[in-house]
Write a structure and sequence with these properties.
This protein has 575 residues and is α/β, with parallel strands linked by helices. It has 4 domains: 169 residues, 3-Layer(aba) Sandwich (Rossmann fold), CATH 3.40.50; 62 residues, Helicase, Ruva Protein, domain 3 (Orthogonal Bundle), CATH 1.10.8.60; 111 residues, Zinc Finger, Delta Prime, domain 3 (Up-down Bundle), CATH 1.20.272; 212 residues, no CATH class. It is built from 23 helices and 12 strands. A 5-stranded parallel beta sheet has the order 2-3-4-1-5, with helices on one face. A hairpin with a 5-residue loop joins β9 and β10.
Length: 575
């Protein structure tokens, strides 16, 4: 009995290939070891139980294996076995959480100068390195930057943001991810099959959900479930141990919530509570079911491997909109925080479920306007008069006064007749003057520059105003007077040289160019400022115009809202 080794230790990976869900890290380390590009300091970060310490030991095995440095240590030599057992004389595992003082760190650093006793490298593994004090980090800096050639540092932490930037810059950092549910489920299947332990899919999936991406948590919980279930992993045992719920019962409760059956939802909550299910656990299960229902609605896929549950989900969400599912999820998520501070958890749970059951989604603005148009507006004589359809070119954004929220504008193609029309861009190519099309304005010249030299065009558009633009008989520029709005990109002489070189290179030598410096005197707008002013004026006109539209006025009156602004949404898609 005393010699039993828990699953988390017995199934600790011994090779990079056996590490679950961290392929992005193991590939990089394999290539570094194969190419001989092994740095002197590593930092492995990630949540608990995803393989940080395991990866550090594997890396130490790769460096000190008696067969040579490689990405595949033998695992059988004396050095490998001692590293696995944790008693190798040259691989020092230090718990930084218990050695936070600077004096303790100096004791460790005093040993760095000594050569390894039996192996190729002396490897220092510091777990939870973020717990070191500021003085300890400072003592480590110089040694970490230029350690002896026989020393390697491997740091592991769950809080990389607490490590000073001076330490991070001296390490190669690898961030380990949460293990996806499908990979973790497959790993537990393999472990249970090799251990010859009977199990059901629902029980394993419940363990995986509770582990939240941690392999160690999943294996530790699996050990508990096996003991609780008398040598088997069944959903009933997991449910009793963790206070979880039956998936089918959860879907029935979710169905009552989505269809507005308040009494059924209250009865379901009472049944769960009487069976020992904690309110927080119940809300967590409802959140997971709502998420799976949203996936089923959106993509026709679900994270559950149970085909029956998938069919139930499909039926459940067939008539429920995505918007309503999102609102249900949001209300449950915020309500779960209230449960933690409520004196009576069951009472808070019941009120939360009632809030969800009688939640009415706000219709989209497009549907709302269509409904109002279909119904028509009563005239003064009592007859129903059909409203004139609102042009799809302007989309008003309204705000309810009571809740101060904006109704999302309908994304649709809009082109208003009053919108400023872009000037025609001349088509020109580099060559002699005879090949150039007329350039009779500053806008046309900048548009031409945008074709040939985008960087120059951006500078001219944003930073240069052109009060004088003279052309010759051919319609080509002959004299330019420019003025800088900002000297952030250079002096007047610099801009003059840029523009002169550009015009000369494109068949326009001899253009007289004057560039005035930045000053506080009034000046003309740059092209960017002109464009912004026109857009603002256009938006103001649209807002004023839509404020008098009968449909918008009816929406504002009915919902006690106010018209905030009108955004002309112009789609670049010609379709």
């Amino acid at each position: 009995m005393s010699s039993y080794v828990v699953l988390a230790r017995r199934w600790r990976p011994r090779t990079f290939a056996a590490l679950v869900g961290q392929g992005h890290v193991t590939r990089a380390l394999t290539h570094a070891l194969t190419m001989g590009r092994v740095p002197h300091a590593f930092l492995f970060s990630g949540i608990r139980g995803v393989g940080k310490t395991t990866l550090a030991r594997l890396l130490a095995m790769c460096l000190d294996c008696e067969q040579g440095v490689s990405a595949e240590p033998c695992g059988q030599c004396t050095s490998c076995r001692e590293i696995i057992a944790g008693n190798h004389p040259d691989v020092l595992e230090i718990d930084a959480a218990s050695r936070t003082k600077v004096e303790q760190m100096r004791e460790v650093l005093d040993m760095v100068g000594y050569s390894p006793s039996v192996s190729r490298y002396k490897v220092y593994i510091l777990d939870e390195v973020h717990m070191l004090s500021s003085q300890s980090f400072n003592a480590l800096l110089k040694t970490l930057e230029e350690p002896p050639v026989h020393v390697k540092f491997i740091f592991a932490t769950t809080e990389p943001r607490k490590i000073p930037a001076t330490i991070l810059s001296r390490c190669q950092r690898y961030d380990l991810k949460r293990v996806p549910r499908d990979l973790l489920t497959a790993h537990l299947y393999a472990v249970l099959e090799k251990e010859a332990i009977p199990f059901d899919l629902a029980g394993v999936e419940a363990v995986v959900r509770s582990a939240e991406g941690s392999v160690r948590d999943a294996l530790s919980l699996l050990d508990q479930v096996i003991a609780h279930g008398a040598g088997a992993v069944r959903f009933e045992a997991v449910s009793d141990l963790l206070g979880l719920t039956d998936p089918e019962s959860i879907l029935k409760l979710l169905d009552a919530l989505l269809r507005g059956r308040g009494p059924d939802a209250l009865q379901g909550a009472t049944d769960f509570y009487n069976n020992g299910v904690e309110p927080e656990s119940l809300v967590k299960e409802l959140l997971d079911a709502t998420h799976r229902a949203t996936q089923q609605k959106l993509m026709g896929a679900t994270t559950s491997t149970d085909g029956t549950l998938s069919a139930v989900l499909s039926t459940l969400v067939a008539e429920i909109s995505l918007e309503h599912l999102q609102m249900v999820y949001q209300v449950l998520l915020r309500g779960s925080q209230d449960l933690r501070i409520a004196e009576d958890a069951l009472q808070a749970l019941e009120m939360l479920l009632l809030r969800v059951a009688y939640l009415k989604p706000v219709p989209g603005l497009e549907k709302l306007l269509a409904t109002l148009n279909d119904r028509g507006t009563p005239s003064s004589g009592g007859a129903t008069v059909k409203e004139a359809p609102m042009a799809a070119k302007e989309v008003p954004v309204v705000r309810e006064r009571s809740v101060a929220k904006e109704i999302s504008p309908v994304r649709e193609r809009s082109i208003d007749k009053e919108a400023p029309v872009a000037k025609e861009i001349p088509i020109a190519r580099k060559g002699p003057v005879a090949d150039l099309q007329p350039l009779t304005s500053w806008e046309q010249l900048v548009s031409f520059a945008a074709i040939e030299d985008k960087e120059l065009a951006v500078k001219l558009e944003r930073l240069v105003a052109c009060p004088v633009f003279e052309v010759d008989a051919r319609g080509l520029p002959s004299r330019l007077v420019l003025r800088l709005a900002s000297d952030v990109y250079g002096t007047p002489d610099y801009f003059k040289q840029l523009l002169t070189a550009f015009l000369t290179g494109h068949g326009l030598p001899g253009v007289q160019i004057t560039v005035d410096p930045v000053s506080d005197a009034p000046r003309e707008d740059t092209l960017e400022e002109t464009s912004a002013r026109l857009r603002h004026a256009h938006r103001v006109r649209l807002t004023e115009k839509m404020g008098h539209h009968p449909v918008v006025r009816q929406v504002v009156s009915r919902f006690q809202a106010e018209l905030v602004r009108v955004e002309p949404l112009v789609s670049t898609n010609a379709g």
